[in-house]
Structures are given as structure tokens and as C-alpha cells.
Amino acid sequence: MRKKQFKAESKKLLDMMINSIYTNREIFIRELISNASDAIDKLYFKSLTDDSVGLNKGDFEIFVDIDKDARTITVTDNGIGMTQEELESNLGTIAKSGSFNFKNDNGEAAPEDIEVIGQFGVGFYSSFMVASKVEVVSKAFGEDTAHKWVSEGADGYTIGECEKDCAGTVITLHIKDDTENDDYSQFLEQYRLSSLIKKYSDYIRYPIKMEMTKSVPDEEKEGEYKEETVVETLNSMIPIWRKNKNELTEDDYNEYYKNKFSDFENPLLHIHSKTEGQATFDALIYIPSRPPFDYYSKEYEKGLQLYTNGVLIMDKCADLVPDYFSFAKGVVDSADLSLNISREMLQQDHRLKIIAKAIDKKIKSELKKLLENDREKYEKFFETFGVQLKWGVYANYGSEKEGLKDLILFKSSKESKYVTLKEYVADMAEGQDTIYYACGENETKISLLPQTEAVTAKGYDVLCFTDDVDEFAIQMLMEYDGKKFANICKDELNLSSEDEKKALDEKNEAAKDMLEEMKGYLNGEVSSVKFTNAIGGHAVCLSAEGYVSLEMAKVLSQMPGGNGGMKAQLVLEINSEHAISEKLFELFAKDKEKLKNYTYLLYNQARLISGLDIDNPTEFADMITQLM
Ligand code: ADP
Ligand code: MG
Questions:
Q1: Dihedral pair phi/psi, residue 387, rounded to 5°
Q2: Which of 50, 285, 533, 587 could crosslink 595 through cysteines, CB 3.0-4.6 Å?
Q3: Residue 388: its pLDDT value, please?
Q4: How far, in Å, from the CA of 208 to the mean position of ligand 2?
Q5: CB of 26 closer than 8 Å to CB of 196
């Protein structure tokens, strides 16, 4: 045996990795199994053209053994194996290409180097996270001699000849002793190790076998159990997403979903796609029927499971789905990705970005199809998750609004059903050039607003905005199909003819003094009092001027930290055609005290109609009773 030193860079890298890069020790088994699987792939490939291999597809396997007393885990494969040179160059040196260039000497790599490490994959070295010593016995296919490589970590390794029958590799990890903070013995537990293998390597295409001790009824002793050892195959080997769609039933998809994502209900929708091109990947994505149980909690993490070639590399890869699809569950499997070693590195992988983009597009197009083909189901989806899509329109300064604007629905006040913006525009009355909306707690309250009545009377539909986010989203959208949006409780509506407008302006001008007086009575609560003719048969209504609407002010005031000074500028509007307006003129001339009371009453009525609180309900009620 000759003792050899690792190259300097390798040593540094090894230390660094053991101590910091891998945060998740348990993945060592995934790395070893995936290497074994790669090695088998190579020999299997050879066997297709080379009879001397002497193995059929069914002969290949990976065996995992635990020896609790010796504190070892052994992973055996009958793959291609390694020659002495390969053992030395593959396991003895990480810096194969010389592209490593450590910028500083305190053990930290510069960020660009980290990326390089990610591309290389230092999977084998993850063994040292749990093992104090690693032995690799390997015989390369076609060679007569086998070799044994032994290392106790960063110091170096020894290598020498040894005996081994068939081609393949046996890797033995001598598991570290437990410390106060670290429980290494857990990996020597059958149940623990086998569940890690099931978790990470379920879809490896060769059987992963392990001896499992089971309690079985003892046939000789009635009522007693005995221990029996059986060899079990731990992995299912064929991922459902790799199968063809026509091999799978709705039931298969549903069962897989329920098992995998622990839901009792069938999913609302599944999307199974095979993509080739810029990125090649299989995806199986589900939209749940109801929000995941922890969806509204801080603990909820969005993301899809990410596999590369059947090996799980991340349980919840958040970068694969945008926030507005945070409810989506599923699996992505791409052969293009290398087994990267950390989340941070993966995030920088441009192929991941391409995949994420393709998935986003796919989900959108499937939802669009659902909207077109199964309206009822789409509306159910929208009732559950529509708010997310609307936030998606609003988020990031509207950067995603184009892709989402045709997926959002609003209730129409006219027909009390959901409409898309496209449908609203298609159904617009002749001469209508604006998309009208109103905000409120629910559709009923909105449809009872004086303003709604006035707009509907013109034959125009009003969209009901009942979610906090609605108006924010629409402001981000700005227009749809060239049509501007108008809040009927706030914006200039242009519903009247030129003549009507002129008459109203004149009336307001003539009543200027009275309106100022009334505004004064309200002690700064409103920014103006004016006559209007756009509210049907009702006496008053409240509207807002400027950027902030009533609803936005309500939402903002509920946000943590108050409303940030965003207050709606209220306008008290009085119906110029209502008998009350004559009465007001009369009081202005004869009885200012009563005008003050009337103003107070009208203002509070208007607040109630708009769904706002009033400061002193008792006083308000008393004044009304007095009048009666
Ligand atoms: P990667 O798998 O990304 O190449 P690893 O550190 O996991 O990186 O493995 C380094 C190399 O060692 C592999 O590329 C392979 O050539 C060799 N190797 C590791 N394990 C085995 C094995 N069980 N059989 C044959 N070769 C192996
Ligand atoms: Mg590997």
C-alpha cells in the first residue's frame, strides 16, 4: 500500500464541503446510490453490444448492507467498476480540470468557484460527512485485478491490490461515533436508512436491495413472533411521470397525488408533460382541489420536487413555480441538471430557469384550456386560488400581468356570474368605452350602491370587486384591450350628455356658497360637497377623489403599520334631481341650524351606503327619530 496525499485544492475543498456546503448529511446515501446506478448504466450499455459482459438487465442491482456492530454501511454494485487509475483520478482528485482557483486562504471559496464545484458534483465526498473512514473496493470490467482505496478524510488515501470476483464496486463507510450534537448512529438503523433510500432514490431504475429484519408469527409457538430476515427491494423503479399518458388512468394519477402529497381529496387537475428542446424534462404537476392544510401559514413552502435522472435532488424547489402558482404540487425530472450540491448553486443554474419558465407557461395554458372547456371546474379553481392570480397581476410592478390577465374572473353585477375581462369587453353596450367596476364587501352590497344603479340604468355592466387585491391589480393592469377601467364610486364617469353636464356645472356654481357651508359643517371629513346626477333615485352617495379609492383606503388602513398616510379624499355627492336638493336650498336661506343637522345626516347615510362605519351611531339614530 502506498500512502498518497490529496491535491491541495482537494483537501481544502473536502474540508470546506464536509463542514459547510452540505447542510443535509442524509444525502450521502443518495450520492452513493446514484454513483452505483451510473456505474451500472455504463456496464448495461456495454452489455447491449458486448456478449462478454454476461449480464442481462435483470441481473443488475445495488445492495445496501448495515453492520450495526461494526458500525458500517456497505453499498455494492455490479456496474462498470474502476481501474487503479480511475480510483485515483475519480476519487483522489476533485480538481480534475484545474479550473479551481481559490481566491482566498481562509477556507472560503469565491462565489464563482462554488459554481464550478456545483457543476463537478463532489457526490462521493459527501460520505465523509457521516464516515470517519471510507473503503472502496473496485474491479473494472475487463480487468483481472481489483483495487482497494482507503481514506480517512482530507489527509489522503492508500491504494493497493486486492481480491474481488466480479466487476463492480463495494463502498464501505465506517460511520462516525456519535457526539453530543450529532447522531450518526441513526444511519445504522435499518428503518431509518431504508426510508432515506425510499425517499431519495425511489425511482432509480435498478433494484436497491437491503436485508430487512421483520417480526413474523412463529408457526411453532402459537401467539409468539420471531425475527426473520428477508431481502427487500426498496425502490419502485419506475416513476409515474416517465410512463406514457396512455398507460395511466385518472385513478393512477389521483392515487399517486394523494400518497405523495398527503391529501385526502383528489386533485382538481393534473398536468403531465414531456418537454424537449432548450431543456428536456418530464413534469407531473397537480392543482389541488382545496388549499394545502398549511397554505395560509407562514410555514408553507411552495415548490416542486426536483429529480435528475430519477434521483431526488430537492424536495421543494421553490424556483420552479412562481408565487401565483404557489399552490401547485408536483414533480419535475430533468436529465439536464447535474446533481448539484446545494440550493444556492442550483438557483444559479440557467437550465433551471428555462424549466421554470416552461412550467409556468404550461400551467397557464392548461388553465386557459380548463377555462374554455370546463367552466364550472375553472370557477371552482378560481374561487379557491383566484386571489393568488390577482396578486400575481399586481406583484413585481405588474411584470406578469400579461400572462395572467385572461385567467382572472370577476362577478358581474348584471348577471351575478363570473366573467373574464375579455367577455366583459365583448359584451359592452354600444358607445361604452370604459370597464366599470365597484368595490364592496360582497356582490349584493355592490349592486345596491346608488352608483351601480345609475350605471346599470345606462345598460352598462359593473364588475364587482370584493377582494382586497382587486383594485390594486386592476390599477396595475391599467387597461384591457384598449379600454380603461373606472371605479364608479370615484372616477369621472361621463355618463351624462353635454347638456346635462352643463346644467349640473351651473347648478354647482350657483350653489357654491351653500356647498362650502355644508363642507364646513363636516369638519374636514370630506374634501368637497357637490351635486351630481348620476345616482338614480337616491339622495346621496359618497365618492373619492384622487388616487386612493374608498376600498383602497380601507385595505391600506388594515395593513400593519397603519395606512401610511394614504387616506381617501371623500366627496359627498347629492342628487340634484332629488327633492332633497330643493329642501337644502330652503334651509340655507332660512334655517342654518337645521341645514347643519341635515348635512350631518346625509353624510352619515352616505357612509353607511358605502359600507363605512359612522362615528356616533346613537346620535345619528336619535336625530332621525327626532325628525320622525
Ligand atoms: P459525479 O458522480 O458527479 O461524477 P462523484 O463524486 O459522485 O461525482 O463521483 C466521482 C466519480 O467517481 C464518478 O464520476 C465515477 O467515475 C466514479 N465513481 C464513483 N462511484 C462509483 C461506482 N460505484 N462505480 C464506478 N465509478 C464510480
Ligand atoms: Mg455522483
A1: -55, -35
A2: 587
A3: 96
A4: 16
A5: yes
**Residue having the nearest C-alpha atom to atom 13 of ligand 1:** 90
User: Ligand 1 atom 1: the closest Cα is on which residue?
Assistant: 121
**pLDDT, mean over the chain:** 86
Q: Point out the ligand 1 atom lying closest to the alpha carbon of residue 94.
A: 6
Per-residue pLDDT tens digits for 200-241: 888 788 999 999 998 888 888 888 898 999 999 999 888 889
Distance from the CA of 121 to the center of ligand 2, in angstroms? 6
Of 17-31, 302-316, 372-386, 486-500, the range with the lowest mean pLDDT is: 17-31
The three three-digit cell numbers of residue 58, written as one number? 435483470
Q: What pLDDT sits at residue 454?
A: 85
Q: How far is CA 161 from the centre of its chain?
A: 52
Phi/psi at 462 (nearest 5 deg)? Answer: -120, 130
Taking the chain, what is the end-to-end CA distance rounded to the nearest angstrom?
A: 110
In 3D, which of 437, 436, 492 has the Cα closest to residue 465?
Answer: 437
pLDDT band at 464 (very low <50, low <70, confident <90, very high): very high
> Do the beta carbons of residue 602 and residue 539 sit within 8 Å?
yes
Statement: residue 599 has pLDDT above 50: yes
Helix-then-strand count for the chain, H and E: 21, 23
Whether 22 has a pLDDT exceeding 80, the answer reads no
User: Please, how many CA atoms are within 13 Å of residue 102, restricted to the half-sphere of its CB?
Assistant: 14
Q: Give which of 178, 195, 135 is closest to 1, Cα–Cα.
A: 135
Mutation pick for ligand 1 pocket among 22, 90, 134, 345 (CB with most ligand atoms within 8 Å): 90
| 87 alpha carbon – ligand 1 mean position (Å) | 9
Which of 501, 400, 488 has its CA nearest to residue 451? 488
How far apart CA 253 and CA 255 sit, in angstroms, is: 6
Residue reference for cell 370584493: 466
Give 534's contacts (C-beta < 8 A, 6+ positions apart). 451, 454, 455, 493, 495, 496, 573
CA 93 to ligand 2 center in whole angstroms:
14
Residues with CB under 5 A from ligand 2 (ion): 35, 123
Position 135 confidence tier, pLDDT thresholds 50, 70, 90: very high
Q: Which residues line ligand 1 (CB under 6 A)?
A: 31, 35-36, 39, 77, 79-82, 90-91, 121-124, 169, 339
In this structure, what C-alpha cell is assigned to residue 337?
Answer: 441538471
CB count in 10 Å sphere of residue 343: 15
Q: How far is the CA of 333 from the centre of ligand 2 (A)?
A: 17
Q: Which three cell numbers stand for residue 182?
A: 450529532
* Alpha carbons 340 and 24: distance in angstroms, whole number: 13
Burial grade of 288 (CB within 10 A; 0-12, 13-18, 19 or more): buried
pTM for this model (two decimals)? 0.66
Return the closest-CA partner of residue 234 out of 262, 185, 192: 192
